[in-house]
Amino acid sequence: MTPITLVEGRRIGLSNLDKVLYPETGFTKGEVLHYYATVAGFLLPHIHDRPVSFLRYPDGPDGQLFFTKNPPPGTPDWVKTTPVPRSVDLSAEQVVVADLATLMWSANLVVEFHTPQWTAGSPAVADRMVLDLDPGAPASVVECCAAALWLRDRLAADGLHAYAKTSGSKGMHLAVPLEPTPSERVSAYAKLLAQEAERELPDLVVHRMAKALRPGKVFVDHSQNAAAKTTAAPYTLRARARPTASAPVSWEEVEACRHPSDLVFLADDIPPRLERDGDLFGPLADPDRAGRLPGTRGARP
């Protein structure tokens, strides 16, 4: 029988707690749930009021992985959902992880959390921009750091603040808080920025996805800003060989990175980092940090 846990007054069945999801480290489903309960106060603000897409891996990263946007079968009626316009995405309805109870119910499904760059009340109007830095072997996160530093300074020249996090896989994400701006406008600016980075750093950066162009270079993926695209949320665990987390990092850590292992953070690493540094992505929610793209007045809903 599945044990029932009471979370914020909601009855949630938490199943298979002893199941090993990450065989390389022996990390269990119970430990996954404990991780999310521990970091909830930092994760929830970053996915608050955003439709969430789930990458599910119920049998671990070596098992079946499948991406789902619509609420999965058996979703409790107390889980908040939001309509998503078909002009933005073919998913008509998506889950909004509004509280700890919903977070724990979602985590019990064994998921990565992915969100768009806009909130539920303003579809296709972004309040942040994301650049996904994806290294092509033999390049690694070390080369991503070099590209990130150039992009940070280039964004600063346009009056924009950039914040870095590991993807939890092999690359990095840069996030920029924005005044509400149409996703199409953000996408166009991000593409121009990626193209400029390639011109200025031709031995390091490419802006096109073609695999033949990417060995030894960093692909600056600007497409994450399209209204229908999503990005792994800060602090989400990833379906990798080990329970790696998408971890916000300081620019000092980016500057100091000399080996790929310097920016690998496992689930157990995150609570001590939060205790020491707080939420390094916290400024994304600060309206005083929100920037305006060159040549636009924004688009406040």
UniProtKB/TrEMBL annotation:
Location of the DNA ligase D polymerase domain: 28-281
Q: Which domain of life is it from?
A: Bacteria
Q: Name one Pfam family in it.
A: LigD_Prim-Pol
Q: Which GO terms describe its molecular function?
A: ligase activity
Report residue spans for region: Disordered. 276-301
Q: Which InterPro entries match?
A: LigD_pol_dom, MtLigD_Pol-like, NHEJ_LigD
Q: Which UniProt keywords apply?
A: Ligase
Note the NCBIfam families from the entry.
Answer: ligD_pol
Task: Write down what this protein is called.
Answer: ATP-dependent DNA ligase
In which organism is this protein found?
Streptomyces subrutilus
